């Protein structure tokens, strides 16, 4: 089990903290697996500094997907991605 720290903007931080968001979409430029601890540190983009608030969540599952198998870069830029919870 590893502890992985990442910054997150206030609007997303609040949703995780309040239990309204339980899916995180990130660039897969780091290693993470089930049972690791993801520590999200709230980042204020206007002040370009951390607020001091953190939230910790145990990783339940990780799914890595290469979206370029299914869509072009222009489509991804135009439409973005959804994270759909069930």
Automatic annotation (TrEMBL):
InterPro entries in the cross-refs: DUF3850, PUA-like_sf
Gene3D superfamilies: Hypothetical protein (2.30.130.30)
Domain DUF3850 per the UniProt entry, residue ranges: 7-69
Source organism superkingdom: Bacteria
One Pfam family of this chain: DUF3850
Name of the protein described by the UniProt record: DUF3850 domain-containing protein
Parts forming coiled coils: none
Phylogenetic placement of the source organism: Bacteria, Candidatus Sungiibacteriota
